[in-house]
Amino acid sequence: MVPDAPGRALAYRTGPRPVPGPRPVPGPGQVLIRVSACAVCRTDLHVVDGELTDPALPIVPGHEIVGRVTTMGEGVEAFAEGDRVGVPWLGWTCGACFYCRSGQENLCPNARFTGYQIDGGYADFAVADARYCFPIHGGYSDAEAAPLLCAGLIGYRSLRMAGDAERLGIYGFGAAAHIVAQVARWEGRRLFAFTRPGDATAQAFATRLGAEWAGSSDDRPPEELDAAILFAPVGALLPAALAAIRPGGTVVCGGIHMSDIPSFPYDLLWREKRVVSVANLTRADGEAFLDVAPRVPVITEIETFPLTAANDALSRLREGRLTGAAVLVPE
Ligand SMILES: [Zn+2]
Ligand SMILES: [Zn+2]
Q1: Residue 185 near residue 159, CB atoms below 8 Å
Q2: What ligand is nearest to the CA atom of residue 114?
Q3: Cα(60)–Cα(30) distance, rounded to whole angstroms?
């Protein structure tokens, strides 16, 4: 995959596969990974569509990478050649700033992100800092494991931000939601799913994953919710979610980008309702979630695409025509 010349909107070239170049060489502390699967995240769409402001262009997208270590850089001890590893969005942090030193490396102002400032997994090979890779255990195939690395991880952080909410609403029932739903049900929560109006397929999917109610995002749920998570990048859903939660409840915005939030009456926020966003992940989130996932067990619903069909996968995601997660598999 070779991105077009840097520009506002990045399109990815289709057509014949480019002749492979020399394999990248891992530097000190890095590993070279042969990519066996890379899931497609909504953030990739925001990168490709030029909606995020700080990409290192040209960039290879993809931050839900599963593969095998083929070459070790100097000083890497955590992994051995042949190990199966996962590479998430958080690719590097400074380790020295206030946030890094206080358990909030997800907020490090110097952080670099995979598939955004570091070349990612829409590729045959990827180089990653070994300190930010996770071992992938459990009976997951490579393609099944890939969506755990962002949809799962960020979804899990969003769920933790929802506190101990028993009645949980989820707006936008895609890759992250389908994983969070399984964890939420396993934790004994009650689930209410909101989809695009009229999206019967997504509503049926949510019901199958344990939602006791599934309706349109402009519907009111049958009872008050304790918390709601917004995975859909639609600012207009925030007032709707605030209207759906109880006093003292929380709305969690789980995406990296959202359209503008329309103004709304203060009454919707009054009575100690809270709005919080989720930014990135910490390595501790990754360790916690990758420990929980096989115990639930979280089952990922995937649709695989050859790497050369990355544009099709992105289009399907943009149009909401995916059930579960798209995963790219190099030929
Ligand atoms: Zn830092
Ligand atoms: Zn992501």
Answers
A1: no
A2: 2
A3: 17
β-bridge mates for residue 38, sequence order: 65, 328
Q: What was the pLDDT predicted at 11?
A: 45
Closest ligand to C-alpha of residue 88 is 2
Helices (H) and strands (E) in the chain, counts: 9, 15
> 179 C-alpha to center of ligand 2: Å?
13
Which whole number is the average pLDDT over 214-225? 96
Q: Dihedral (C-alpha) 164, 167, 172, 175: value to the nearest 10 degrees?
A: 60
| Gap from CA of 105 to ligand 1 centroid (Å) | 6
What pLDDT sits at residue 183?
A: 97
- How many beta carbons lie within 10 A of that of residue 250, not counting itself? 22
Residue 16: per-residue pLDDT = 56
What is the CA(161)–ligand 1 centre distance, in A? 22
Q: Which ligand is in closest contact with the Cα of 90?
A: 2
Q: Which ligand is nearest to the CA of 110?
A: 1
Q: Are 285 and 132 in contact (CB under 8 A)?
A: no
Say what the pTM is.
Answer: 0.90
Between the CA of 122 and the centroid of ligand 2 the distance, in Å, is 13
In the chain, helix, strand, coil percent, each to 5? 25, 25, 50
Give pLDDT, residue 70.
Answer: 97
Identify which ligand lies nearest to the alpha carbon of 42: 2
